TrEMBL record:
GO biological process entries: protein folding
Residue ranges constituting the PPIase FKBP-type domain according to the UniProt record: 157-244
Protein name in UniProt: Peptidyl-prolyl cis-trans isomerase
EC number(s) reported in the record: 5.2.1.8
Keyword match Isomerase: yes
InterPro entries reported for this sequence: PPIase_dom_sf, PPIase_FKBP_dom, PPIase_FKBP_N, PPIase_FKBP_N_sf
UniProt key word rRNA processing: no
Source organism, top-level taxon: Bacteria
Matching Gene3D superfamilies: 3.10.50.40, Peptidyl-prolyl cis-trans isomerase, FKBP-type, N-terminal domain (1.10.287.460)
Organism: Shewanella mangrovi
Record's catalysed reaction(s): [protein]-peptidylproline (omega=180) = [protein]-peptidylproline (omega=0)
Length: 254
Protein backbone atom coordinates (compact mmCIF):
# COMPACT_ATOMS: atom_id res chain seq x y z
CA UNK A 1 0.00 0.00 0.00
CA UNK A 2 2.79 2.43 0.89
CA UNK A 3 4.58 1.91 -2.43
CA UNK A 4 1.37 2.30 -4.44
CA UNK A 5 0.55 5.51 -2.55
CA UNK A 6 4.01 6.85 -3.29
CA UNK A 7 3.73 6.13 -7.00
CA UNK A 8 0.20 7.50 -7.20
CA UNK A 9 1.47 10.81 -5.81
CA UNK A 10 4.26 10.82 -8.38
CA UNK A 11 1.62 10.19 -11.03
CA UNK A 12 -0.45 13.13 -9.82
CA UNK A 13 2.57 15.39 -9.95
CA UNK A 14 3.28 14.60 -13.60
CA UNK A 15 0.03 13.14 -14.87
CA UNK A 16 -0.41 16.13 -17.12
CA UNK A 17 2.65 15.10 -19.03
CA UNK A 18 0.45 14.36 -21.93
CA UNK A 19 -2.16 16.51 -23.56
CA UNK A 20 -5.04 15.75 -25.80
CA UNK A 21 -5.10 16.50 -29.50
CA UNK A 22 -8.39 14.66 -29.83
CA UNK A 23 -11.25 17.02 -29.15
CA UNK A 24 -14.13 14.71 -28.43
CA UNK A 25 -17.68 16.01 -28.32
CA UNK A 26 -19.51 14.30 -25.55
CA UNK A 27 -23.10 14.58 -24.40
CA UNK A 28 -23.43 16.61 -21.19
CA UNK A 29 -23.17 14.32 -18.20
CA UNK A 30 -26.10 14.18 -15.83
CA UNK A 31 -25.52 16.10 -12.64
CA UNK A 32 -24.32 13.84 -9.85
CA UNK A 33 -26.72 13.63 -6.93
CA UNK A 34 -25.04 14.03 -3.57
CA UNK A 35 -27.51 13.19 -0.84
CA UNK A 36 -25.38 11.72 1.91
CA UNK A 37 -22.22 12.83 3.69
CA UNK A 38 -20.42 9.75 2.39
CA UNK A 39 -21.31 10.67 -1.19
CA UNK A 40 -20.16 14.25 -0.65
CA UNK A 41 -16.90 13.13 0.93
CA UNK A 42 -16.17 10.73 -1.92
CA UNK A 43 -17.07 13.31 -4.54
CA UNK A 44 -14.94 15.92 -2.80
CA UNK A 45 -11.90 13.63 -2.96
CA UNK A 46 -12.50 12.91 -6.64
CA UNK A 47 -13.10 16.58 -7.48
CA UNK A 48 -9.95 17.64 -5.67
CA UNK A 49 -7.85 15.10 -7.58
CA UNK A 50 -9.58 16.01 -10.84
CA UNK A 51 -8.92 19.73 -10.49
CA UNK A 52 -5.29 19.10 -9.62
CA UNK A 53 -4.87 16.85 -12.65
CA UNK A 54 -6.70 19.34 -14.89
CA UNK A 55 -4.20 22.07 -14.00
CA UNK A 56 -1.32 19.86 -15.07
CA UNK A 57 -3.08 18.78 -18.25
CA UNK A 58 -3.67 22.42 -19.18
CA UNK A 59 -0.02 23.28 -18.62
CA UNK A 60 1.22 20.33 -20.63
CA UNK A 61 -1.13 21.19 -23.49
CA UNK A 62 0.48 24.62 -23.61
CA UNK A 63 3.86 22.89 -23.93
CA UNK A 64 2.65 20.81 -26.89
CA UNK A 65 2.43 17.39 -25.21
CA UNK A 66 -0.23 14.83 -26.08
CA UNK A 67 -2.43 13.16 -23.50
CA UNK A 68 -4.78 10.25 -23.59
CA UNK A 69 -7.50 11.27 -21.18
CA UNK A 70 -9.19 7.89 -21.46
CA UNK A 71 -5.97 6.25 -20.24
CA UNK A 72 -5.83 8.65 -17.27
CA UNK A 73 -9.39 7.75 -16.30
CA UNK A 74 -8.69 4.03 -16.80
CA UNK A 75 -5.56 4.20 -14.66
CA UNK A 76 -7.48 5.99 -11.91
CA UNK A 77 -10.40 3.55 -11.93
CA UNK A 78 -8.27 0.43 -12.10
CA UNK A 79 -5.89 1.55 -9.35
CA UNK A 80 -8.91 2.46 -7.23
CA UNK A 81 -10.04 -1.17 -7.61
CA UNK A 82 -6.59 -2.46 -6.72
CA UNK A 83 -5.73 -3.38 -10.29
CA UNK A 84 -3.17 -2.00 -12.72
CA UNK A 85 -2.00 -2.77 -16.25
CA UNK A 86 1.49 -1.57 -15.24
CA UNK A 87 3.80 -2.64 -12.46
CA UNK A 88 4.95 -0.17 -9.82
CA UNK A 89 8.40 -0.05 -11.41
CA UNK A 90 6.92 0.61 -14.88
CA UNK A 91 4.80 3.44 -13.53
CA UNK A 92 7.77 4.96 -11.71
CA UNK A 93 10.21 4.77 -14.62
CA UNK A 94 7.64 5.97 -17.17
CA UNK A 95 6.60 8.99 -15.17
CA UNK A 96 10.14 9.93 -14.20
CA UNK A 97 11.18 9.86 -17.86
CA UNK A 98 8.19 11.98 -18.86
CA UNK A 99 8.82 14.38 -15.99
CA UNK A 100 12.38 14.92 -17.21
CA UNK A 101 11.25 15.69 -20.77
CA UNK A 102 8.53 18.07 -19.60
CA UNK A 103 10.93 19.82 -17.23
CA UNK A 104 13.32 20.47 -20.10
CA UNK A 105 10.51 21.75 -22.31
CA UNK A 106 9.17 23.97 -19.53
CA UNK A 107 12.62 25.45 -18.86
CA UNK A 108 13.13 26.15 -22.57
CA UNK A 109 9.77 27.92 -22.80
CA UNK A 110 10.44 29.98 -19.67
CA UNK A 111 13.79 31.09 -21.13
CA UNK A 112 12.18 31.94 -24.45
CA UNK A 113 9.53 34.09 -22.74
CA UNK A 114 12.10 35.69 -20.43
CA UNK A 115 14.39 36.61 -23.35
CA UNK A 116 11.48 38.14 -25.26
CA UNK A 117 10.34 40.11 -22.19
CA UNK A 118 13.86 41.47 -21.72
CA UNK A 119 14.09 42.62 -25.34
CA UNK A 120 10.57 44.08 -25.34
CA UNK A 121 11.27 45.89 -22.07
CA UNK A 122 14.44 47.49 -23.40
CA UNK A 123 12.60 48.67 -26.50
CA UNK A 124 9.77 50.09 -24.38
CA UNK A 125 12.18 51.92 -22.07
CA UNK A 126 14.06 53.36 -25.04
CA UNK A 127 10.86 54.68 -26.57
CA UNK A 128 9.42 55.92 -23.28
CA UNK A 129 12.48 57.95 -22.28
CA UNK A 130 12.01 60.13 -25.37
CA UNK A 131 8.55 61.24 -24.21
CA UNK A 132 8.20 64.78 -22.94
CA UNK A 133 8.21 64.94 -19.15
CA UNK A 134 9.87 61.55 -18.62
CA UNK A 135 13.02 61.54 -16.49
CA UNK A 136 15.47 58.61 -16.40
CA UNK A 137 17.52 58.18 -13.24
CA UNK A 138 21.06 56.81 -13.05
CA UNK A 139 19.71 53.36 -12.13
CA UNK A 140 17.51 53.25 -15.23
CA UNK A 141 14.23 53.98 -13.43
CA UNK A 142 11.93 56.23 -15.44
CA UNK A 143 9.32 58.52 -13.91
CA UNK A 144 6.77 61.06 -15.02
CA UNK A 145 5.02 63.53 -12.71
CA UNK A 146 1.26 63.22 -13.19
CA UNK A 147 0.44 65.38 -10.17
CA UNK A 148 2.85 67.39 -8.06
CA UNK A 149 2.89 67.14 -4.29
CA UNK A 150 4.13 69.42 -1.53
CA UNK A 151 6.52 69.14 1.36
CA UNK A 152 9.07 66.58 2.47
CA UNK A 153 9.80 63.28 0.78
CA UNK A 154 9.89 59.86 2.49
CA UNK A 155 13.09 58.09 3.38
CA UNK A 156 13.75 54.44 2.57
CA UNK A 157 13.02 53.34 6.15
CA UNK A 158 9.71 55.23 6.34
CA UNK A 159 6.30 53.60 6.07
CA UNK A 160 4.30 54.95 3.14
CA UNK A 161 0.58 54.98 2.43
CA UNK A 162 -0.30 54.77 -1.24
CA UNK A 163 -2.81 53.99 -3.93
CA UNK A 164 -1.42 52.34 -7.03
CA UNK A 165 -2.01 50.46 -10.26
CA UNK A 166 0.56 48.01 -11.64
CA UNK A 167 0.69 47.04 -15.30
CA UNK A 168 2.77 45.11 -17.77
CA UNK A 169 4.01 47.09 -20.78
CA UNK A 170 1.14 45.72 -22.87
CA UNK A 171 -1.31 47.43 -20.51
CA UNK A 172 -2.37 44.32 -18.60
CA UNK A 173 -3.24 45.32 -15.01
CA UNK A 174 -1.78 42.70 -12.68
CA UNK A 175 -2.50 44.46 -9.39
CA UNK A 176 -4.05 47.63 -7.97
CA UNK A 177 -5.61 49.02 -4.84
CA UNK A 178 -8.92 49.10 -6.73
CA UNK A 179 -8.72 45.34 -7.32
CA UNK A 180 -8.06 44.87 -3.61
CA UNK A 181 -11.10 46.76 -2.33
CA UNK A 182 -10.01 50.30 -3.11
CA UNK A 183 -8.37 50.98 0.25
CA UNK A 184 -4.83 52.43 0.35
CA UNK A 185 -2.03 50.17 1.53
CA UNK A 186 0.82 50.89 3.93
CA UNK A 187 4.27 49.29 3.96
CA UNK A 188 7.89 50.04 4.87
CA UNK A 189 9.48 51.52 1.75
CA UNK A 190 12.66 49.47 2.09
CA UNK A 191 10.75 46.17 1.89
CA UNK A 192 9.51 46.39 -1.69
CA UNK A 193 11.14 46.16 -5.12
CA UNK A 194 14.09 48.51 -5.71
CA UNK A 195 12.17 50.57 -8.28
CA UNK A 196 9.54 51.46 -5.67
CA UNK A 197 12.09 52.18 -2.95
CA UNK A 198 13.93 54.60 -5.23
CA UNK A 199 10.90 56.09 -6.95
CA UNK A 200 8.76 56.95 -3.95
CA UNK A 201 11.64 58.82 -2.34
CA UNK A 202 11.30 61.30 -5.22
CA UNK A 203 7.68 62.06 -4.30
CA UNK A 204 6.13 64.51 -1.88
CA UNK A 205 2.83 63.90 -0.11
CA UNK A 206 -0.09 64.23 -2.51
CA UNK A 207 2.01 63.52 -5.60
CA UNK A 208 1.09 61.03 -8.29
CA UNK A 209 3.82 59.59 -10.51
CA UNK A 210 4.01 57.12 -13.35
CA UNK A 211 7.01 54.81 -13.04
CA UNK A 212 8.47 52.54 -15.68
CA UNK A 213 10.64 50.06 -13.80
CA UNK A 214 13.24 47.92 -15.64
CA UNK A 215 13.17 44.26 -14.72
CA UNK A 216 16.50 44.59 -12.90
CA UNK A 217 14.78 46.99 -10.45
CA UNK A 218 11.67 44.79 -10.21
CA UNK A 219 11.65 40.99 -10.03
CA UNK A 220 14.49 40.29 -12.46
CA UNK A 221 14.52 36.83 -13.97
CA UNK A 222 12.10 35.47 -11.35
CA UNK A 223 8.81 34.25 -12.77
CA UNK A 224 5.98 35.41 -10.49
CA UNK A 225 3.53 32.76 -11.66
CA UNK A 226 0.94 33.81 -14.22
CA UNK A 227 0.96 37.38 -12.91
CA UNK A 228 4.40 38.75 -13.76
CA UNK A 229 6.55 36.75 -16.19
CA UNK A 230 10.33 36.69 -15.82
CA UNK A 231 12.28 39.77 -16.96
CA UNK A 232 9.15 41.92 -17.10
CA UNK A 233 9.45 45.70 -17.26
CA UNK A 234 6.69 47.07 -15.03
CA UNK A 235 4.60 50.23 -15.19
CA UNK A 236 3.12 51.71 -12.02
CA UNK A 237 0.90 54.70 -11.36
CA UNK A 238 1.42 55.59 -7.70
CA UNK A 239 -0.20 58.24 -5.52
CA UNK A 240 1.58 59.01 -2.25
CA UNK A 241 -1.07 59.80 0.35
CA UNK A 242 1.08 59.93 3.45
CA UNK A 243 4.23 58.62 5.10
CA UNK A 244 5.70 58.37 8.57
CA UNK A 245 9.02 57.62 10.15
CA UNK A 246 9.46 54.25 11.88
CA UNK A 247 8.57 54.21 15.55
CA UNK A 248 11.51 54.39 17.90
CA UNK A 249 12.27 51.21 19.79
CA UNK A 250 11.07 51.39 23.43
CA UNK A 251 13.81 52.21 25.91
CA UNK A 252 15.06 49.27 27.95
CA UNK A 253 13.65 49.19 31.48
CA UNK A 254 16.14 49.76 34.26
Amino acid sequence: MKSMLKYSLVALAVVGLAACNQEQKEAPAAKTELKTDVQKQGYGIGASVGRYVAQHVKEQQSLGFDVDKNAIVAGFKESLDGKSAMTDEEIKSTLEALDKVVGEKRAAKVKEVADKNLADGKAYLEKNKAKEGVVTTESGLQYEVLQAGEGDKPKAEDTVKVKYKGMLIDGTVFDSTEKNGGEPIEFPLNRVIAGWTEGLQLMSKGAKYRFVIPSALAYGDRDMGDVIPANSTLVFEVELLDFKAPEAAPAASK
